[in-house]
Amino acid sequence: MTLTELLKKRRSVRRFEHKRVPREVLEGLLKATLTAPSSKNTRSTRFMVIEDAQILTKVAQMRDFGSALLADAPCAILVCGDSSATDLWLDNAAISATILQLVAEEAGLGSCWVHVNGRPRWSKERNSGSELSYAENSDAETATDYLRKFLPLPKEWNPLCAVALGYPLEPSKPRSEKDDADKVIYL
Ligand SMILES: Cc1cc2nc3c(=O)[nH]c(=O)nc-3n(C[C@H](O)[C@H](O)[C@H](O)COP(=O)(O)O)c2cc1C
Fold it and tell me: CB of 115 closer than 6 A to ligand 1?
């Protein structure tokens, strides 16, 4: 399959077979992902591979919306940026997470990016009792605060997202054709 075909085929997968992803497959994905370009070759992206079902269940509770799928995934890779290596850790980590999703697709796995960085543990609706919006309420717990309570994350590792990985339970629907003409300007 060409890269263009792979890009067209990839969709987010949120339901997985109850089947382990072999360790050598995970190692292959990470080896490929570690080739990612990075600012000044700082290679600041770090990975925490989580296969333990109990830990995945806890990670799935990091947000009240959008992260529950992690509880039924056989594996998730927490993609983090080392902020002591570069100020562009977030940019580097986003490139790595994207490459991870593409090499997962190539390996016949499904994946879904589940966001962590900057996300509140509880969405605004849950906090409706508070007069402050989430953005104004600096005391509100973030998904990262919550993860730090039980994951052995070094303090300079900042999670960007958790990439759920596994064998897809059902085939993905093809992407609908979109008119993207307004997204590009040629000069
Ligand atoms: C920055 C980013 C954050 C995302 N966060 C979540 C998330 O928290 N939960 C989720 O289920 N999907 C999440 N996704 C997946 C998107 O919903 C998905 O990529 C988008 O709807 C397009 O669908 P596709 O991946 O099938 O093309 C995220 C994707 C990106 C790139």
Answer: yes
CATH code of the domain in which 72 resides: 3.40.109.10
pLDDT confidence band for 123 (50 / 70 / 90): confident
CA distances from 174 to 9, 10, 12, 14, 47 (A): 7, 9, 11, 15, 30
pLDDT in tens, 45-96: 999 999 999 999 999 999 999 999 999 999 999 999 999 999 999 999 999 9
CA 100 to centroid of ligand 1, rounded, Å: 14
**157 CA distance to ligand 1 centroid (A)?**
22
Atom 26, ligand 1: which residue's CA is nearest? 11
Among candidate residues 175, 136, 160, the one with its CA nearest the CA of residue 9: 175
Asked if the structure places residue 1 within a domain, the reply is no
Q: Which residue has the higher pLDDT, 12 or 175?
A: 12
Domain range spanning residue 88?
13-124+141-166
**What's the gap in Å between 138 CA and the centre of ligand 1?**
26
112 pocket-lining for ligand 1 (C-beta < 6 Å): yes
d(CA 114, CA 100): 13
